[in-house]
């Protein structure tokens, strides 16, 4: 049956990169192996201009009822002076909150043609393909009590609380184990059980879930400080890393720098499986709306395209189709075609549209 997609291009370069991705979606649609019912709507500044809010209720309703959401980027200087509650970013936050997207997937995939863009030596990152799964709706960013108090002594005290429940840990760990089965079948669970109670519980619950339901997946544990070191020293030792909100925030940014440009980094955020067997999911590039290059046909569409590939792989179990996209991207890069953000000596500069053309042509040749 047809897959229902909601496409939210957003602001700045969002609509520019999404236009190229829609051409690739059409390419897959034409092959008939998989059909998409695609609907496009507004989010962020574009929605503020049209409706006065960064995400209309009707759009939220659509997002709740499709198989997957594909988002470009939101924000821009023209909306910076608005109140926090109606800023473009609130549109994104509303989607994440109401869809309860608790697992944030950030792959670090190193294309050989871009190995020089890494901050590390080629032999350390060449062929790298790891996935960081960050818990996104719990932990110290949301735990109570929190606040800043005045003490009788006149000192002030800032408080945040790291809290995780068994169900919060198990659901994100289950996502990580599921993903591992579609990859290299290995999960490394990361916490600081040596100094944190929530870390002790984390390790315990991940281990219990593994032993009960995912015995076929290889599970290891690592302290977060060691993990940050290992990511830079020998990142290829990892397949899937699962960790909490705070450690995941930092480790995924570290991993991102292993592979170079923002214009190449996809992501996914997953929620629970509903009564119809569908897992709530939103796919988006890691980068923002890049107002500095918006409207100039310069943006790299590959991060958004690779986000669509993740959708095929993880929402629709179309791993071979996802591989087609990744191979096409690899071939285009090997041909030396580059947008401005990843340009290298001897490469051919292409526009956003030019990159779209190149990917479609590469797909035709596979
Ligand atoms: P940004 O990611 O938009 O841009 C950072 C730098 O990277 C810029 O120089 C930009 O030109 C470049 N860049 C980013 N994506 C690129 C691409 N696909 N191709 C080529 N170059 C690319 O981050 P920045 O400048 O901090 O934020 C700009 C706006 O985007 C702000 O309004 C911010 O709030 C918003 N933003 C939105 C996000 C989202 O929608 N998820 C995430 C991050 C920022
Ligand atoms: Mg961060």
Automatic annotation (TrEMBL):
Binding site for Mg(2+): 225, 249, 253
GO cellular component, one term: cytosol
Pfam families attached to this UniProt entry: Iso_dh
Pathway(s) served: Amino-acid biosynthesis; L-leucine biosynthesis; L-leucine from 3-methyl-2-oxobutanoate: step 3/4
Catalytic activity field: (2R,3S)-3-isopropylmalate + NAD(+) = 4-methyl-2-oxopentanoate + CO2 + NADH
The entry's keywords: Amino-acid biosynthesis, Branched-chain amino acid biosynthesis, Cytoplasm, Leucine biosynthesis, Magnesium, Manganese, Metal-binding, NAD, Oxidoreductase
InterPro entries: IsoCit/isopropylmalate_DH_CS, IsoPropMal-DH-like_dom, Isopropylmalate_DH
Cofactor(s) required for function per UniProt: Mg(2+); Mn(2+)
EC annotation from Swiss-Prot or TrEMBL: 1.1.1.85
UniProt cross-references to Gene3D superfamilies, sorted A to Z: Isopropylmalate Dehydrogenase
Main location: cytoplasm
Localization per record: Cytoplasm
GO molecular function: 3-isopropylmalate dehydrogenase activity; magnesium ion binding; NAD binding
UniProt site (Important for catalysis): 141, 192
Domain of life: Bacteria
One GO BP: L-leucine biosynthetic process
Subunit architecture: Homodimer.
Function: Catalyzes the oxidation of 3-carboxy-2-hydroxy-4-methylpentanoate (3-isopropylmalate) to 3-carboxy-4-methyl-2-oxopentanoate. The product decarboxylates to 4-methyl-2 oxopentanoate.
Database matches in PANTHER family: 3-ISOPROPYLMALATE DEHYDROGENASE (PTHR42979)
Name of protein: 3-isopropylmalate dehydrogenase
């Amino acid at each position: 049956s047809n897959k229902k997609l909601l496409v939210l291009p957003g602001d700045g370069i969002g609509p520019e990169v999404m236009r190229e991705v829609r051409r690739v979606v059409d390419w897959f649609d034409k092959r008939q192996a998989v059909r998409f019912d695609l609907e496009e709507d507004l989010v962020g500044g574009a929605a503020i201009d049209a409706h006065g809010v960064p995400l209309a209720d009707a759009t939220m309703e659509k997002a709740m009822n499709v198989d997957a959401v594909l988002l470009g980027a939101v924000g821009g200087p023209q909306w910076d002076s608005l109140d926090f509650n109606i800023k473009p970013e609130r549109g994104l936050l509303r989607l994440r909150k109401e869809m309860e997207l608790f697992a944030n997937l950030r792959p670090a995939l190193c294309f050989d043609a871009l190995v020089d863009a890494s901050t590390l030596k080629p032999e350390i990152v060449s062929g790298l393909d790891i996935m960081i799964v960050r818990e996104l709706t719990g932990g110290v960013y949301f735990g109570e009590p929190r606040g800043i108090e005045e003490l009788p002594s006149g000192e002030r005290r800032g408080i945040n609380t790291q809290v995780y429940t068994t169900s919060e840990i198990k659901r994100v760990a289950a996502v990580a184990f599921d993903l591992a089965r579609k990859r290299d079948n290995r999960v490394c669970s990361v916490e600081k059980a040596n100094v944190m109670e929530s870390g002790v519980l984390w390790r315990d619950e991940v281990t219990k879930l593994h032993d009960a339901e995912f015995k076929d997946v290889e599970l290891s544990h690592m302290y977060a400080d060691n993990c940050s070191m290992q990511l830079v020293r020998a990142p290829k030792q990892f397949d899937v890393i699962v960790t909490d909100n705070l450690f995941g925030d930092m480790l995924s940014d570290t991993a991102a720098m292993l592979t170079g440009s923002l214009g190449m980094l996809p992501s996914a955020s997953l929620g629970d499986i509903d009564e119809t067997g569908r897992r709530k999911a939103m796919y988006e590039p890691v980068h923002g709306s890049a107002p500095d290059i918006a409207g100039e046909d310069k943006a790299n569409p590959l991060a958004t395209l690779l986000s669509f590939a993740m959708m095929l792989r993880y929402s629709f179990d179309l791993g071979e189709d996802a591989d087609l996209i990744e191979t096409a991207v690899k071939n285009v890069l090997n041909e030396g075609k580059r947008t401005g953000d990843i340009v290298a000596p001897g490469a051919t500069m292409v526009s956003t549209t030019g990159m779209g053309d190149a990917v479609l042509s590469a797909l035709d040749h596979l």
